[in-house]
Amino acid sequence: EGLMILTSAPGVVEAVLDSLGSGGSLADDPGVRAAAQQLNAAASVVLLPGPDACLSFSPNPLLDALDEAELSAEDLLAEPLPAQPQALYPTLGLGYHYPGTGKAGVDLPHWLVVMHYPAPELAELDLAPRLALAEQGMSQASDAPYSELYRVEMGTVAGSDILLALAPQGENRSSLLMSMLYRRDMLFATCP
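^ that's the sequence the OP posted. Answer follows.
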């Protein structure tokens, strides 16, 4: 009968408590249903609903740049920015698959990341920059390129969803994605 709500936004607590009183559930959220459907074969799933799901993954590039180097404001503004995501997604889903246990003998990727958008054209717009961040980004927690931590096996749009399939690189990486999620070390999931 207990409920724990972990958030840094007090408005989220009020919204959750209000929905409990109204009989609403996550199953009523079309974004949650869509992401869950993409992850239906996963052994384990995490769903982050709500339009602010991406906010906790958004780094502050100005602070990061100032932390790493002694640059002036003019230097920072002169640096070209990498392609950035353009649209907010209202639901993020992560699923963990065990290799070799897919349907009809098809191997599934180790991890499937689902970013559900309100419309297919928004997912299409965001695929290239999110895929580039997943492939070329830098892990702040590990201080290593993502390419040393995992391999991007697939990046595609399915309906209104961006799907990223990630395979761990090296040994002892079975919990890497969950660690990246809890540390908010997923640059490819950032808000625009």
